[in-house]
Amino acid sequence: MTVSKLEVIYLTFNYFQLMFDAITNSQGTLLIIHYSDSVNRKETSQCVELVRSFLPKLKPGFTVIVDLERLVHMDVDCAEDLGKVMDLCNQAKVNHIRRALPNPEVDIGLNIISRFHYDEQHVSIKTYPSFYQAMKSFLLAEGKRN
Q1: pTM of the predicted protein model
Q2: By CB distance 3.0 to 4.6 Å, which of 16, 39, 67, 144 could disulfide with 34?
C-alpha cells in the first residue's frame, strides 16, 4: 500500500474557514486528521461529527494519525472535543495513535487528555517530528501485516 492509494473520503471543508480535514483509506485501517493554523471550538465540534461518520468504515485495530505540523493555535475550549474524538476512536477499537508534532513543547495537552480517553493497555501512542515519519511508520507496519 502506498500513500497514493489512499481513498480520500473527505477533504478540507473550506480551507479559509475551517482549519482541519480528515481522510480515511479504503481498507478501513487508517484515519488521518490534519489541524492547521488557528483552530476554534466550532471546528473541533465539526471534526467530532466527521470522525463519527467515518467510524463505520474503520476496522477494529485501525490507526489514527493526527497531523499537528501546521497547527499554530488551538483554543483551550477545544479540549472537550479532542476528548470526544479520542472516546469515539477508543470505542471503535483503535490500536495505534501516531502524532506528527514537530515541536513537542507545543503539545496542546494531548498526552494528558489521552490518559483519560484511551485504553492504555490496548492503544499505543507515538509522536513523530513530521507527518511523513508518522505515515512511514504506518506504512511499514501495514507492510508487515500483509
Answers
A1: 0.83
A2: 67
